[in-house]
Amino acid sequence: MESVPRPAETPAPPRTSRRDFYLAAIYGLWSLMAAALSLPALIYLLLPPKLRKESDWVEVGDISALQPEVPVEMVFRRNRIDGWKVISEKSTAWVVKRSLNQVVAFGPQCTHLGCAYHWDETKNEFICPCHTSVFSVDGKVVSGPAPRPLDRYVAKVENNKLFLGALHESEPGA
């Protein structure tokens, strides 16, 4: 018998069943959903928020009209950065003008339990109505349960404009 050379047989392409196609499509969709959900989480965890360098000083207002040794409550807005969110907060400070360019700014909370205090013009004292703490015009404790003087802002004056920095906690007995 004579063998006749046959042309090389090409293997038949593998047939994809409908079931295999649907499984591949489902797994592909799951992979896309997992990537879509995990990518923002990875970005949040691995990349720091954009550093927004802003001035630590906040302009509070003009002090040219202030009377010496007469406290005035001044309202200002301060931006606070919380991660990626910038929050604008309203704050207050009790400002006492000492001399032409010397100003003291007190934080608005009593040092006892954080209540809001006010200036009593008749007695020339700061009074906390909640727990009867009394403070002098220089922020020192006159009487009451307050354990320390009023907290102070770092303050500077430029061209009769008051700028406030960070609020520093006062030391007991200072």
Outline the fold blueprint.
Layout: H1 18-46, E1 58-62, E2 72-82, E3 85-97, E4 103-106, E5 118-120, E6 125-128, E7 133-135, E8 141-143, E9 152-158, E10 161-168
Briefly say what this structure is.
It is built from 1 helix and 10 strands. It is α+β, with helices and mostly antiparallel strands.
Percent helix: 10-25%
Q: Strand-residue fraction? A: 35-45%
Distance between the termini: 119 Å
- CATH architectural type of the largest domain: 3-layer Sandwich
Strand order of the largest sheet: 1-10-9-4-3-2
Number of distinct helices: 1
Question: How would you classify the helix and strand content by structural class?
Answer: alpha+beta
Order of helices and strands: HEEEEEEEEEE
Number of domains: 2
Largest sheet: 6 strands, antiparallel
State the CATH superfamily name of the largest domain.
Rieske [2Fe-2S] iron-sulphur domain
Count every beta strand, where a strand is a DSSP E run of 2 or more residues. Answer: 10
Specify the CATH class of the largest domain: Mainly Beta
Which shape, going by the Cα principal axes?
rod-shaped
CATH topology of the largest domain: Rieske Iron-sulfur Protein
Low-confidence parts: none
- Radius of gyration over C-alpha positions, nearest whole angstrom: 35 Å
Task: Report the average pLDDT across residues.
Answer: 85
